Automatic annotation (TrEMBL):
Protein name: Sorting nexin-30
Top-rank lineage group of the source organism: Eukaryota
Matches recorded under InterPro entries: AH/BAR_dom_sf (IPR027267), PX_dom (IPR001683), PX_dom_sf (IPR036871)
Keyword Secreted: no
Compositionally biased intervals (Low complexity): 63-75
UniProt keyword terms in alphabetical order: Protein transport, Transport
Organism: Sinocyclocheilus grahami
Domain PX, residue spans: 87-208
Gene name, Swiss-Prot/TrEMBL: snx30
Molecular-function GO term, any one: phosphatidylinositol binding
Family indicated by similarity: Belongs to the sorting nexin family.
Renumbered residue ranges of the record's region Disordered: 1-75
């Protein structure tokens, strides 16, 4: 968790820290290009480039990677295709394998790591992990970094419409989701330096019981905050976040339902096409004069079937998982907002106790100051993660929508090419008929 300086003086009213209030946020699926290409400065007018977060007490908050000498001296570029960025940690999830024992059947994935950070003993690692190991990592990240947005994992249970959790399609979809989860953690300037993440990537055996009962002081304050007290009002920027997440959830739900219906209708149409094509092939055996054109129609329908099958698979394997990931992302973001509200509620409770002199112990003012600093740390971390999430979302949905547009164009081009291939056959038959006459 970021370390915020303790402020001194008498308790003061809670003020929002960091950047300026979020303005009207367009939905990422808006038809207007400006909604997709908007820079982060639009959300925070007056800012340019990478700005330092400043708390109300004047303390700068550093949201960049820890500036350890080992990290800075070894920030070597390991990959040329990074859009000009320099990174020092690369993680991939690959090679799923099925394991069958007398007790259980499960899938493991090979987690490959390349790094120049001297926090690691080796420059490369290759370890096998199963889903419950990823789940352990995410839980540890939530415990130790309560002020940050932890990327979501794919759901533990079988996805909608998938019966066999060991099927090739399900396992590959999960592998992609686990790979994205680790990449998002590895790209985070704070989470990527977490000791549990280091252990997950490098330790041969994970000691999952170690520290399970321990929470950070922040975690304790979040967990055991007064349950009966509700925060008076979220600061305007966090209220805007909550409203946007509610709207985004509705839009994603609508798109998901329509996409599911389209896939269902395409699958039904595909089944009919597969029955439709062979009829022409069978018919051609009885029509000597029409043999070639009929076989051509059969082949054309077969090509259209293959193109439709590919389009349907792309929607199922590429389009829907992104929607589902962001539904889970929204749930994670809402949980962080609730934690922030709980910390603010704890601060307000303690502040009221001082104001109304319900508690006259000398330690209370210092305790109130600590609570306020926790709120300010929460605000700064959450805003930084919100900006990161917004940038990732714009990139993901731009890539998703342009990719689906390209796939649809390719589908219709393949169908058009298939039907155009019939023209020479029909022309030859027409010419032969004219010569006969």
């Amino acid at each position: 968790t970021n370390t915020c300086a303790m402020s001194a003086g008498t308790p003061r009213a809670l003020a929002s820290s960091g950047q300026k209030p979020i303005q009207d946020i367009r939905h990422p699926l808006s038809a207007e290009e400006s909604a997709l290409s908007r820079s982060p400065d639009v959300l925070h007018p007056g800012g340019a480039g990478e700005r330092d977060l400043i708390l109300p007490n004047g303390t700068p908050v550093d949201t960049s990677s820890p500036t350890s000498s080992s990290s800075l001296l070894n920030r070597l570029q390991l990959d040329d295709d990074l859009d000009g960025e320099t990174r020092d940690l690369f993680v991939t999830v690959e090679d799923p394998k099925k394991h069958v024992s007398t007790m259980e059947t499960y899938i493991t994935y090979r987690v490959c790591t390349k790094t120049t950070r001297t926090e690691f003993d080796l420059p490369e690692y290759s370890l096998r992990r199963r889903y419950q190991d990823f789940d352990w990592l995410r839980n540890k990240l939530e415990e130790s970094q309560p002020t940050h947005l932890i990327p979501p994992l794919p759901e533990k249970f079988v996805m909608k419409g998938v019966v066999d959790r060991f099927s090739e399609e399900f396992v590959e979809t999960r592998r992609k989701a686990l790979d994205k989860f680790l990449k998002r953690v590895a790209d985070h300037p704070v989470l990527s330096f977490n000791e549990h993440f280091n252990a997950f990537l490098s330790a041969k055996d994970l000691n999952k019981r170690q520290g399970l009962a321990l929470l950070t002081k922040m975690g304790e304050s979040v967990k055991y905050v007064t349950g009966g007290y509700k925060v008076r009002a979220r600061p305007v920027e966090f209220a805007a976040m909550g409203d946007y997440l509610d709207l985004f959830t509705q839009k994603l739900g609508t798109i998901d339902r329509i996409a599911q219906r389209i896939i269902k209708e395409q699958s039904e149409f595909l089944m009919e096409l597969r029955e439709y094509g062979p009829v022409y092939s069978s018919w051609s055996s009885f029509e000597e004069d029409l043999h070639d054109p009929l076989e051509g129609v059969s082949g054309c329908v077969s090509n259209c079937s293959s193109a439709l099958e590919e389009l349907t698979e792309d929607m199922s394997e590429d389009f829907l998982p992104v929607l589902r990931e962001y539904v889970l992302y929204i749930e994670s973001m809402k949980n962080v907002l609730k934690k922030r509200d709980q910390v603010q509620a704890e601060y307000e409770t303690k502040l009221e106790a001082v104001v109304f002199r319900e508690d006259k112990k000398t330690s209370v003012p210092a305790d109130v100051e600590k609570c306020q600093d926790r709120v300010e740390c929460f605000n700064a971390d959450l805003k930084a993660d919100w900006d990161r999430w917004e940038n990732n979302k714009r990139q993901d949905f731009r890539q998703l929508l342009t990719g689906m547009s390209d796939k649809n164009i390719q589908y219709y081009e393949k169908c058009l090419a298939a039907w155009e291939s019939l023209i020479p056959l029909l022309q030859d038959k027409q010419e032969a008929k004219g010569e006969t006459n």
